Automatic annotation (TrEMBL):
This is Uncharacterized protein. It comes from the Bacteria. Residues 30-69, 199-230 are annotated as: Disordered. Residues 30-54 have a biased composition (Pro residues).
Length: 230
């Protein structure tokens, strides 16, 4: 399939950035205490597809993920879609993904975001996602090494930086030609990923501090001759 997408592909192009962030939001709950038992790595959340009202005045109006948690990215995207006037396509979609790829050849979008139905590619993406979910579980359980903590947050930084780069380039090159709904989703993605980037240094520092506190308790436990591990 040519990357010169027609109408139904680019909504995925814009929306996939928001949905990808939705997975990070679903994973970013409050970190467990150092003494919390390590559970299985969390799975990526799939936004609920039920219709939502255009304005979310309370938590009860926000769509939820399958596990019952608030789907914040889905709520924001739904509001953008509800507020944007309906537009009918008048021809080929005004975005040349080949040109975007030439400008951003190393962007993660081409590895993780381009819509596909190829079984082999879907399996590869699932394996990559499982790898990062496993590492996330180790970070939250204070079982990751210092290098693994740094690797995890560097990956998250790369995800957000590439999402911002892709969205801002698409807006700069095609913003005046995009349907308002798609433009709104891209602008929303940029804002959300910038917020996420601003939070990463603190989150990484806190993860390293939790890891060190946990390791210190383990050292003290061993020095006392054992007993129940803290």
């Amino acid at each position: 399939m040519s990357t010169r997408a027609r109408w139904k592909l680019p909504l995925g192009t814009a929306g996939v950035l928001v949905l990808a962030l939705g997975a990070w939001l679903a994973l970013d709950g409050p970190p467990p205490g150092d003494g919390a038992a390590a559970g299985p790595p969390p799975a990526a959340m799939t936004p609920d597809t039920r219709p939502a009202p255009p304005v979310f005045a309370s938590a009860s109006g926000v769509p939820r993920t399958k596990d019952g948690g608030l789907d914040l990215a889905g709520a924001a995207a739904a509001q953008v879609q509800a507020e944007a006037p309906a537009e009918e396509p008048s021809g080929p979609y005004p975005v040349d993904l080949d040109a975007l790829r030439a400008k951003l050849p190393d962007n993660l979008y081409w590895d993780t975001g381009v819509p596909t139905k190829e079984p082999a590619e879907l399996r590869r993406r699932a394996e990559v996602e499982a790898k990062w979910n496993t590492l996330f579980g180790k970070v939250q359980a204070n079982e990751a090494t210092e290098a693994e903590v740094q690797q995890y947050y560097e990956h998250r930084r790369k995800v957000s930086e590439d999402a911002i780069s892709f969205a801002t380039t698409m807006l700069a090159d095609y913003g005046d030609k995009l349907p308002s709904q798609d433009r709104g989703l891209l602008e929303l993605s940029v804002r959300m990923h910038r917020t996420r980037l601003s939070e990463l240094p603190r989150q990484q520092e806190e993860a390293l501090a939790r890891r060190e506190a946990h390791a210190q308790r383990q050292r003290e436990w061993r020095e006392k001759g054992g007993g129940r591990q803290p």
